Amino acid sequence: MATRFDPFQDMDRLVGEMFGSARAAATMPMDFFRSGDHYVLHVDLPGVDPGTIDLNVEDRTLTLRAERSPVEHDVQWYLRERATGSYVRQITVGRGMALDKIDATYTDGVLTLSIPVSEDAKPRKIEVQHGSQPATITQTAEHTA
What we know:
Elements lengths: L6 H19 L4 E6 L2 E7 L9 E5 L2 E8 L16 E8 L10 E5 L2 E7 L7 E4 L8 E4 L6
Antiparallel strand pairs: 1-2, 2-7, 3-4, 4-5, 6-7, 8-9
């Protein structure tokens, strides 16, 4: 029986175990879900100055930028797990979202984006007519998650 050795995978695992908390602190943890006729994105950005939050949409790419400045200068650090500096995250989203109608709020360190489902992505019921009458399409309140 042959086994495969990947030194890079083992190294990545070791680094992850040693520096996992520091790596997690340098990211923007987020949750993304659909609720009714909106998609909701929660992004954890504690300590970020709201004036530095920049949100852009180009084609199907959502770009989020934010900055956290260091709280103390000219001090002797003993422990520093809270990352400072610029954060950038890009998310490529699929069709079906009305990206021109995003509502964004920043409260208690959490950026919340509410993105409506686009009209052409909402489920519709097609009624079949008998004979020479044309078929009609009607909007339904039902949706699939």
